[in-house]
TrEMBL record:
The protein's name in its UniProt record: Nucleotide-sugar transporter family protein
GO cellular component: membrane
Ubl conjugation found in the keyword field: no
Region of interest (Disordered), ranges: 1-24
Subcellular location, principal: membrane
Membrane topology: Multi-pass membrane protein
Natural source organism: Rhynchospora pubera
Superkingdom in the source lineage: Eukaryota
Length: 352
């Protein structure tokens, strides 16, 4: 009896408190394993989708710049207003298809005549900005155009102060000093500097900043807020309605010249179609990147886009650049990065 009792104790010993306890993870049941695999696949698929949108955004932004420069400067199609009107017509048609037919976003309606007048006012500012930007490409290279465009934060802060009387922390304004200094350095050393091209490019940059400030000021109520795709759906037809008559008045003979170019060179018609399509893709991919990442990510990507577009344009069009000009562009981009960081910190401190 004693032996049997001893054997029973050895066969099922009690754990010694001094012994270490090893935690062995349990193997998930067979039914859960496919769920884990599908989650990993979904994550990688989402990352691939976001990367695809970012690449598309880069290609469309740089592509429309290069196409505009080729048509307006290299090809000799000297009608920037009519070209912008084609952009707006393309955006109108593609936006209608994307929002009303494909339902890429939930359609939003204009709720009042007052809201329509606000959108019409934004369209006028939008026309000014895009026409001036396209006009500048007739006179200055894409690289210099992008350097000037990088000063948008300076104009945004200035208009916000003048229109809304909203002040920013001192560090935000200090960070804008390199933005201005860089463009001064780049302008003084630009081999292909053109006074009129420089002025209209500045006007384009200021118009872009003014639109963002006015849009935030006008469409503030929940009933009036529109996402960028629906806003483009309403702005583009208004802009086209403004631009086509303006082009016929300010650019006489544009229709005859355009038709003659298409008949003489069918590739020209394809270039116009591609130009209008890519112009819409800029807005579409802008919306998709913002929706899948954030507005801050888009801002960071925009800073890099300016440098990439300038580099690619120099490779394609072979326009001369100077070391001082490159340094000035770098100072401006560095200032924009500092401005973004200062704005982010000011928002964090104000929210806390």
């Amino acid at each position: 009896m004693v032996e049997g009792h001893a054997l029973r104790r050895v066969s099922n010993p009690r754990p010694d408190p001094a012994d270490p306890i090893i935690d062995i993870p349990s193997t998930p049941p067979a039914k859960q394993q496919p769920l884990l695999q599908s989650a990993a696949t979904s994550t990688s698929s989402s990352a691939a989708t976001t990367s695809g949108f970012i690449l598309s955004w880069y290609f469309s932004n740089i592509g429309v710049l290069l196409l505009n420069k080729y048509l307006l400067s290299i090809y000799g199609y000297r009608f920037p207003i009519f070209l912008t009107a084609i952009h707006m017509l393309s955006c109108s048609l593609y936006s209608f298809a994307a929002v009303r037919w494909l339902r890429l976003v939930q359609p939003q309606c204009i709720s009042s005549q007052r809201q329509f007048m606000k959108i019409a006012f934004l369209s006028s500012i939008f026309c000014l900005s895009v026409v001036c930007g396209n006009t500048s490409l007739r006179y200055i290279p894409v690289s210099f155009n992008q350097a000037i465009g990088a000063t948008t934060p300076f104009f945004t802060a200035a208009f916000a102060l003048l229109i809304t009387f909203r002040t920013e922390p001192a560090m935000v304004y200090i960070s804008l000093l390199p933005v201005v200094l860089g463009i001064v350095v780049a302008s003084n050393s630009e081999p292909l500097f053109h006074p009129f091209g420089f002025m209209v490019c500045l006007a384009s940059t200021a118009g872009r900043a003014l639109k963002s400030v006015v849009q935030g000021l006008l469409l503030t109520s929940e009933a009036e807020k529109l996402n960028s795709m629906n806003l483009l759906l309403y702005m583009a037809p208004i802009a086209a309605t403004i631009l086509f008559p303006l082009s016929l008045w300010y650019e006489p003979g544009v229709v005859n010249v355009t038709l003659a170019n298409v008949q003489a060179d069918p590739k020209f018609g394809l270039l116009l179609l591609a130009n209008g399509t890519v112009a819409y893709l800029v807005n579409l991919t802008n919306f998709l990147v913002t929706r899948h990442t954030s507005a801050l990510t888009l801002q960071v990507l925009g800073n890099a886009k300016a440098a990439v577009a300038a580099f690619v344009s120099v490779l394609i069009f072979k326009n001369p650049v100077t070391t001082t000009g490159v340094v000035g562009f770098g100072i401006t981009v560095s200032g924009v990065v500092l401005y973004s960081e200062a704005k982010k910190r000011s928002k964090v401190s104000s929210s806390s």
